[in-house]
């Protein structure tokens, strides 16, 4: 039986045991072949019980951002994750799939193209995993201030009234189950409708261990149900 890759065991441990280690950079490519990179917050790890060689990384986004279009255009992405507490750097290449609110643009993108190459996602879905339930659970887990960001106008849209226009935006939004007034309920539903998760299934990892002297660097390449390891010059 396959097992969890060594790089993932280290990454999960480092993130779980160290605060302020949830930020990484994610790169996508647009239709013109231009790269775009931005900081993302890690939301969860998923490990298919029947397929531990295919761990999944989950982050979140506003479904109206351009990264959604970019992932639809090219579902291969790369992230760079520096864990300062352990002095580990992970560069992870993988295929991304977007799970948005049912009926929203971007819902379950890419719909079919990613499935043949995403054994981890397929393994979970074969067990009846509910991605909409996962999306809602992660939405509920964030702060009220973070939820409020998904009630703003579309990211990147022009502020006709300048920065002062932001004074009219909501500051805190409760989760739907805790909304009391009609206004709170409307804001909670609006935020949830704009909230999407991005699931990344890695197929290549470059792990640099800078806490070791001399430094240690290893390439991990997914080959079927196993990860090939190759030590290289840092």
From TrEMBL:
This is Pyridoxamine 5'-phosphate oxidase-domain-containing protein. It comes from Russula earlei.
